[in-house]
Every structure is written in C-alpha cells, then in structure tokens.
Design goal:
The protein is of the alpha+beta class. The chain is built from eleven helices and 17 strands. The chain folds into two domains: about 230 residues, Creatine Amidinohydrolase (Alpha-Beta Complex); about 110 residues, Creatinase/prolidase N-terminal domain (Creatine Amidinohydrolase, Chain A, domain 1, 3-Layer(aba) Sandwich). Strand 5, helix 6 and strand 6 form a beta-alpha-beta unit. Helix 2 crosses helix 7 and helix 10 packs antiparallel against helix 11. The longest helix is centred in the middle third of the chain and has 23 residues.
C-alpha cells in the first residue's frame, strides 16, 4: 500500500488536525493605500482618467471591501488623482459600510433609479467630461454596457493594465497569506489520503476535505475535485464519478481561502500497488514539473516555462502540443485573490517573470481510457529565482514524504 494512503478513520484523521491561522496578519490599511497609489501611476501611464472597480476581487484588492457581484451595481470609481467613490444601493449602505475598509464618498441609488446615469452625472461633476476610463475586466456586460450608454462622452476600455498591473506581483504580506493557505491544504491532503478505503465515494472524500479545511482554520467551502481510476483521465472530473477500488489511481485537487487568498494543490497516487505503467508516467509528470520550475527565472517569458515542460513531455514520446496521450492544457496559472489570475504559464503569454509573481505548476499527463496524473504545487518569484510554496510530491510510493529522513 502507498505510504500514507488509507488505514485511518475520518474521526482520527480530523482529530490530528489543528487550527493553523492563529496570529495571521491581514492586509494592513497602509498596503491598501500603496495599491491605490500604484493604480494612479498605472492610470497615468495608460492615459486613463479613472477606473471602475466592480464588486469582487478587484474591489477587495484595492479597497479591502468584501462584496460579491450581483444583479445590482456595486463598485467604485477611482480617479487618476486618487479620488475614490463607491456606487451602492441606498438600502445596502449601512451593511456596505460594515465591510468597507477604505474611506470614500458614496453614490447611492434607489431601486427605481438608473445607477449608470448617476455615475455619468457624477463623472461630470468630477470634471471628467471626456477621455478614457478603464473598466474592471471582470465587470458583467450589463454594467459595462450601462456605463457606455449613459456616458457616451467617455471612451470605456479595459482596466486590465491597471488591475493586473497591480495584482500580478504580490507583496510580502500577500506571499505570507498564500503560504499559509497552501500549507494548510497540504495538511488536508495528507489527512484525506489517510482515510481512503475500498468503496468510499468521491462525495464522502469531498465532505471530509471541507471539514478538514475548516478544522485547520479555512473560511468557506473548499474547492475540490476527487477522482478515482479511469476518471482521473478527465482533468476536471466526470458527471458520475466512480467509487474507489484497490489499485485505482487517485487524483485530488483542492484548495481553501485565507483572508481571500487561494491555495490550489493536486496530488496523484495509487490506492494499493502502482503498476510499472503508473510509475513510468508518474515519473514523467514529476520531471515535467521540475523542468517548468527550472525554467522559471527572472526575465524569462511565462510562455517559455510552458514550452520547457511541454518539450520534455514530447521528448518522452507524448503529445505533441495538446494531443493525447500528453499534456492537454497550459502548464500553470497565476494565483492570488482569484484561483486563476494573470499571468499564465502558457506559450502565448510573453509576460516576463518578475519578483512577486505566483504560479501553479501542473503540467498534467492524460492517458485516455486509463488514468491521468497531475502534480500541482505553486511557486513564487524571488530576487534569486523561483521558490516553492510547498514541496512537490516526493515519490509515487511515498507521495507526502512521510518516510523521508
């Protein structure tokens, strides 16, 4: 039996987990002010009069305001002079103020009013009668269209150069929160592996992972993909997942949130005894992950990291490109407040790697009608090059390195 896989009850596994978020340091007010200042600089460089930040991770990143997008317009206007105003339904203002961390005036709108028209009038009052305004790229079409229809004197464009320009490179405080989230998830992975037994369902494992993440201090439900046997050859799962059988490949991809920052780690191993074919492809996957990590040096284009992993896989007789058996998707993605964010480790992304960038490294192998292997860990860029948030899986026989001296 694979080391660390099976043999423990759910109750015992949960009892071994402890709260890991004591003394974590949330993002401080001074950092929010620094983010707003950087946004101003990027707006000036891009020739933008202002940007619109919609409810969600961009609003949270720049103002510390946790508010989820809905059919009602909630967001903020930040001008290139640093003036900040929120757009909020009148009946939500008291609740909104309880979540908001950065001071700003409020453009309030009643249910019968058009918020886009109110924003248009306010822009004129602020002296913005022409020019370009960047719109948060995650903004729903109905909001961006509403702004365009009611402020035809403005050229609305994507704010990505500002939002991504600020968020791509994480601060030390963000790195600390990401490190905590990923460390927590790796412990949950170990616990989940230990409870596996013949006949267990993916639903049971998912429920356990939710409980385990809560036990270590995560907020909200876990992101979770649990697959057994041939189902592992489908990167994001199947409609009717099978129950676990002896000698099945197991793929678990899960993560949690710490102060809004994501973890996202995948482990693949065998419940039972790996075959020679399992070993062969597991070794290729591990080496492909290592090749990507080695290529990730400061100044190198993100796309070159993807090419390094894919070229190695092709040299093993797999692929080429996205063909199967082989690697069907990009090598990795940026991560932060969004589980997938810019930049991406895909050959079309020419963004040069810079200090503070954070990535998943997951060049998955898919062997159709047999199994899939995904080893996913994350790294961040330091002044000396890439550094792992969590150590990669040790071996197919000891995936968590439990017997490593």
């Amino acid at each position: 039996m694979t080391i660390g896989v099976g043999g423990i009850s759910q109750e015992e596994a949960l009892s071994k987990l402890t709260n890991m978020v004591d003394n974590i340091q949330p993002i401080q007010e001074t950092e929010y002010q620094q983010r707003l200042a950087k946004a101003q600089d990027l707006m000036a460089h891009a020739g933008l009069q202002a940007i619109y930040l919609n409810a969600g991770t961009n609003l949270y990143y720049f103002t510390g305001t946790k508010w989820y997008a809905s059919e009602r317009m909630v967001g903020a206007i930040l001008t290139n002079k640093g003036h900040l105003e929120y757009i909020v339904p009148q009946f939500e203002i008291d609740t909104f103020n309880g979540f908001s961390l950065t001071e700003g005036a409020i453009i309030a709108w009643e249910e019968h009013q058009c918020p886009y028209q109110l924003v248009s009038l306010r822009l004129k009052e602020l002296g913005i009668n022409e020019g370009r305004i960047g719109v948060d790229e995650s903004t729903p079409y109905f909001i961006s269209d509403g702004l365009k229809q009611n402020a035809p004197f403005i050229d609305f464009v994507s704010a990505k150069s500002v939002t991504a320009g600020c968020r791509m490179c994480k601060s030390s405080a963000e790195i600390n929160l990401l490190t905590k989230a990923k460390t927590m998830t790796l412990e949950v992975h170990k616990a989940a592996a230990s409870i596996l037994k013949p006949g267990i369902s993916t639903h049971e494992v998912t429920e356990f992972i939710n409980l385990a993440h809560q036990k270590v201090g995560a907020t909200g439900s876990s992101f979770c993909i649990v697959l057994f046997g041939e189902d592992t050859s489908y990167p994001h799962g199947v409609k009717n997942p099978k129950k676990l059988e002896v000698n099945d490949v197991v793929l678990i991809d899960t993560g949690c949130l710490v102060e809004g920052y994501n973890s996202d780690i995948t482990r693949t191993y065998v419940f039972g005894k790996p075959t020679q074919r399992h070993r062969e492809f597991w070794a290729i996957e591990k080496q492909a992950q290592a090749k990507a990590f080695e290529k990730a040096q400061l100044g190198v284009a993100c796309g070159e990291v993807d090419v390094a992993a894919r070229s190695y896989i092709e040299n093993q007789g797999l692929g080429p490109d996205y063909q199967l058996p082989g690697l069907p998707h990009r090598t990795g993605h940026g991560i932060g407040l969004d589980i997938h964010e810019w930049p991406y480790l895909v050959k079309s992304d020419s963004t040069p790697l810079a200090v503070g960038m954070c990535f998943s490294n997951e060049p998955m192998l898919v062997i159709p009608n047999e199994f899939g292997i995904r080893l996913e860990d994350h790294f961040y860029m330091t002044e000396k090059g890439p550094k792992w948030f969590t150590e990669p899986s040790y071996s197919i026989d000891d995936p968590f390195g439990l017997q490593v001296n």
